[in-house]
Amino acid sequence: MQLTSKFDEAPWQRASDLARFKRIESEGYVIRLLQLDAGFEESDWCDKAHIGYVVEGELQVTFQDGVRTLCAGDVLTTLHGPASAHRGAVNHGTVTLFLVDPPQ
After folding, report:
1. CB–CB of 18/24 below 8 Å?
2. C-alpha–C-alpha distance, residues 72 and 38, integer Å
3. Which InterPro entries match (predicted)?
4. 22-101 belongs to which CATH class?
């Protein structure tokens, strides 16, 4: 096992006016802590695999077969590939989300 960094030491980075994140890579995994504000909406479909945990807030995730609402304490898992394509959105408040992207 290799410890590469601590989230406290990782700088916040801006993805947009409504999204910021901390990112650590370790042994092929990408580990992110995200904060998404109301009005955030992904414009493109993501087809990457994720394992996620909603720390706080309410996240709307659109899949090809419908929308799921994830609340604090909920876990998200998606597989890699077009069949698992998804987009996230935040309708109100702020969402804090912990995501792990396994090696592709």
Report:
1. no
2. 15
3. RmlC-like_jellyroll, RmlC_Cupin_sf
4. mainly beta
